[in-house]
Amino acid sequence: MEQKLEEMSEFFNNRSQVYDERHVGAIDGGLESKRILASFLPGHTQNLVDLGIGTGLELEAVFERFPDIEVTGIDIAEKMLRQLKEKYADKSVILHQCSYFDYDLGDAHYDAALSVMSLHHYNHDEKADLYRRIYKGLKQGGTYIECDYMLSEHEYENPQEQEDFYFAEYGRLKREQRITDEQQYHYDTPCTVSNQKQLLLEAGFSRVSEVWRIKNTVVLAADK
Ligand SMILES: C[S@@+](CC[C@H](N)C(=O)[O-])C[C@H]1O[C@@H](n2cnc3c(N)ncnc32)[C@H](O)[C@@H]1O
Questions:
Q1: CA atoms of 213 and 215, how far apart (whole Å)
Q2: 17-26 pLDDT, tens per residue?
């Protein structure tokens, strides 16, 4: 049966109660892919913005390493944020329920930025604009860490062909289901690791490195 596309916040709100268990079981690298991320943050990190923070699975290890860090979390799904608030009631977490495409990341404000398993729903143009805003929002010496579902030659003979296939399929489903671009829908359109790196470099980052990978779960660190 064809996948029925669901609006993004609705998709995650409807699954928020079971998200932690199911998501960790479904992704390459499991919980390790969340816990490893804190180790890539700069040692001087005092504040962090997390784009698509969800229930905050990645925060546990962040708070272990930086107990007093201030986290700004952005997510469109209210029920995911509700779960997060319960988990980290005693921590300094400022949450904004909105799209990260609409949130003003400011100018040289954050020591670090993080996005985990969220951006594989978006295309190159959307990412390019967001990466430029992340770059601007970071202080000099700051780092952006992205952990996501990405396509590499380790898993695919031709990662670019695979990326093109997902975008074409998404376009076809949108046309068939008469969906316009006014809202964001949940459909996986992962990009190749080399396209991801290129987009980050074009956004201004001076160095972009792949720092961790288990199958399709890849972590990139981009330095300002
Ligand atoms: C797979 S979950 C990842 C949550 C968390 N970062 C983690 O790794 O467990 C993707 C999250 O991104 C959020 N999201 C997707 N598109 C978004 C957007 N445009 N703006 C803000 N949040 C978004 C979803 O609501 C969801 O909570």
A1: 6
A2: 999 999 999 9
